[in-house]
Structure formats: C-alpha cells, structure tokens
C-alpha cells in the first residue's frame, strides 16, 4: 500500500513542472506585442509613405540614412529579444529534464523499500 509519505515523494517533482508552467505563462505574456500600438505604427508608416510618394515631403540624404540606421537598430533589437527568448525556452527545457530526473528518483525511492520488504 502506498503511504502518504510515498505520495508526497512522488508528487514533489511535479512542483518543478508547475514552476515551468508558471514561468512559461508569465514569459509568454511578456513577449506579446501590443496590437493597438502595431496598428498605430502601421497607420503612421502609410501616411509617411503616401506623403513622400506624393512629393509633399522631400527626404534629404541625411534623413534617408537616419531612417536606415533606425531600421537597423530596430532589427538588432528584435534579434536580441529573439535570442533571449530562445535562451529562456532552452532554460525551460533543461528544467523539464531535471523534473523528469527527479520523478525517476522519486519513483525509485518509493519502490526500493517494497522490494526489500
């Protein structure tokens, strides 16, 4: 018969997985983009494009280069964020592997006394 102690030993590794779930949920919320801000940005870009194409705004070489620098900076920022997200997902994977190992240890800890007795 399984005792309360055995049940606790078997459930303890589940805390690792519960931690992974909480961290994943919190992280996923932090990684989402604000759709309202995205729409506003798209509208501003469309207005800008329309005015440049209509000749209302004349961009100097300096302004075009500054625009390209901003674009590169934004791309670099996105790359860094994506890299950090990949690192975080890798951490979650290793935590899960650790949880699985703890689960095996817990099962052996509960099973071992029965084999001897």
Any chance you could write out the topology, listing elements then pairs?
Elements: H1 4-30, H2 35-53, H3 61-116
Helix pairs in contact: 1-3
Tell me about this structure.
By secondary structure, this protein is mainly alpha-helical. It has one domain. The protein has helices at 4-30, 35-53, 61-116. Helix 1 (4-30) packs antiparallel against helix 3. The radius of gyration is 27 Å and the shape is rod-shaped. 0% of the residues are buried.
Key words describing this protein structure:
mainly alpha, single chain, 117 residues
| Series of H and E elements | HHH
Report helical residue fraction. over 70%
Protein structure class: mainly alpha
**Distinct helical segment count:** 3
Distance between the termini: 12 Å
Main beta sheet: none
Overall mean pLDDT: 83
| Total E-strand runs | 0
Shape: rod-shaped
Computed Rg: 27 Å
- The parts where pLDDT drops under 50 for at least 5 residues are none
Number of domains: 1
Strand content: under 5%
Brief sketch in words of this structure:
The chain has 117 residues and is mainly alpha-helical. It contains 3 helices and no strands.
């Amino acid at each position: 018969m399984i005792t309360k102690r055995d049940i606790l030993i078997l459930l303890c590794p589940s805390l690792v997985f519960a931690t992974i779930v909480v961290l994943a949920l919190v992280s996923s919320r932090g990684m989402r983009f604000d759709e309202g801000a995205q729409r506003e940005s798209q509208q501003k870009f469309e207005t800008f494009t329309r005015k440049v194409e209509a000749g209302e705004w004349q961009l100097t070489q300096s302004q075009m280069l500054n625009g390209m620098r901003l674009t590169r900076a934004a791309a670099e920022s996105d790359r860094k964020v994506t890299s950090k997200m990949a690192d975080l997902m890798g951490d979650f994977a290793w935590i899960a592997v650790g949880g699985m190992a703890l689960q095996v240890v817990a099962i052996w800890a509960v099973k071992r006394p029965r084999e001897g007795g």
